[in-house]
Write a structure and sequence with these properties.
The chain is of the alpha/beta class. The chain has 2 domains: about 130 residues, Alpha-Beta Complex (Aspartate Aminotransferase, domain 1); about 240 residues, 3-Layer(aba) Sandwich (Aspartate Aminotransferase, domain 2). It contains 13 helices and 15 strands. The strands form 4 sheets. The chain has a 7-stranded mixed beta sheet with strand order 2-8-7-6-5-3-4, with helices on both faces. The chain has a 4-stranded antiparallel beta sheet with strand order 9-10-15-12. α7 links the parallel β6 and β7. The structure holds pyridoxal-5'-phosphate. The site of pyridoxal-5'-phosphate has 14 residues, from α3.
Length: about 375
């Protein structure tokens, strides 16, 4: 099998699994218990908090663990918006875990505006400033897009905002970029940042919200006082420990991972561009080192995906499957692709276990699928 779908999820690094195991067996205490087993669990969570905070240059006191990126995004948005006289802006290419909660509050009277992106999928500062209103409470722009890998220059957006009179809070979803590109939370100028463990070789079902202490963040669920009361509920101990270890490894190995993935991606893209009718989405802008999305003239992305699957190759399409109706990807349509082009897209997202031979085989299979379809 060839696995080229790391933006959907990544396999757990064996070193992460090893770090987690004692917390599923020997150290099972509830971190809120005052006895020794509870204290051991609490210490493990504190260590993980430091490891994750360090990955993005934040203070550990500014981080709460959640059940994943989806919950962290919901907490960032709904935990800040508390009055329906407030205005909120989000980029047209956001993940559904940002888009859907905002669409939902729009029905409660909140003024929710969409920031358009250019043909490369980026929000420009001028567009942002043109849309900011005196009552803009929150702005959400993702750091890296999950489909295209396009990176936003968040610092340039937050700087432009600081130069205006706006006191809007800036949130960025860094689920896809954390562990893949260097991040310094403070320098980026955002006050809220979302992370998820399973995109960086950690376990699924755990994420984090980073928040500047100035943000008046409110819990969106009620219960015990865990995670500063912002995320009540007994902590997912082993998963949090795994997230910490995965973050530590990602930071230690960031430059070697970057060199490896970049060379693999360059090999992939060189071969893809040699196949007639293929173009790379947002080819000329900054993208994640592991992500390539292509559109293929006259082809159907879902069909290519199924053919690939038959041959043991796992990739993703550029479509959203709702109620069994295949719809074009909202990310690509926001970038100006027409329906047919958007439905012809596939995404290849590489990981540390991949090899040059796999890349070559993938390109060979893809060229064959396209050639036999055209015949
Ligand atoms: C950009 C982005 N944000 C948020 C999420 C949701 O994260 P999780 O799967 O941890 O809920 C994903 C997952 O695919 C994502 O790609």
């Amino acid at each position: 099998m060839i696995y080229f779908d790391h933006n959907a999820t990544s396999p757990i690094d064996p070193r992460v699994l090893e770090a987690m195991q004692p917390y599923l067996t020997t150290f099972y205490g509830n971190p809120s218990s005052t006895h020794r087993l509870g204290r051991a669990s609490r210490t493990a969570i504190d260590t993980a908090r430091e490891q994750v905070a360090k990955l993005i240059g934040a203070e550990s006191a500014e981080l709460v663990f959640t059940s994943g990126g989806t919950e962290a995004n919901n907490l960032a948005l709904i935990g800040v918006l508390n009055d329906n006289k407030q205005h909120v802006l989000y980029a047209a290419t956001e993940h559904p875990s940002v888009k859907d909660p905002l669409t939902s509050i729009a029905s409660k009277g909140f003024d929710v505006g969409l920031l358009t992106v250019n043909a490369s999928g980026q929000v420009c500062a001028k567009e942002l400033l043109a849309q900011v209103k005196p009552n803009t409470r929150l702005i959400s722009v993702m750091h890296a897009n999950n489909e295209t890998g396009v990176l936003q220059n968040i610092a340039s957006l937050t700087q432009a905002l600081q130069g205006s009179n706006s006191d809007a809070i800036f949130h960025t979803d860094a689920v896809q970029s954390a562990g893949k590109v260097p991040i310094q939370f403070t320098q980026m100028g955002a006050q809220l940042m979302t992370l998820s463990s399973h995109k960086l070789y950690g376990p699924k079902g755990v994420g984090a919200l980073i928040f500047d202490k100035s943000v008046p963040l409110q819990a969106i669920q009620r219960g015990g006082g865990q995670e500063l009361g912002l995320r009540p509920g007994t902590e997912n101990l082993a998963a949090i420990v795994g997230f910490g270890k995965a973050a530590e490894l990602a930071l230690q190995e960031l430059s070697q991972r970057t060199v490896f993935l970049l060379s693999l991606k360059e090999r992939l893209e060189r071969q893809l561009l040699a196949i007639k009718g293929i173009s790379i989405v947002a080819e000329s802008v900054d993208r994640l080192v592991n992500t390539t999305q292509i559109v293929v003239d006259g082809m159907d992305g879902e069909m290519m995906l199924m053919q690939m699957d038959r041959q043991g190759i796992c990739i993703s399409g550029g479509s959203a499957c709702a109620s069994r109706v295949v719809a074009p990807s909202p990310v690509l349509t926001a970038m100006g692709y027409d329906k047919e082009q958007a439905l012809s897209a596939i995404r290849i997202s590489l990981g540390m276990q991949n090899t040059e031979a796999e890349v070559d085989q993938f390109c060979h299979v893809l060229a064959d699928i396209i050639a036999s379809y055209r015949l």
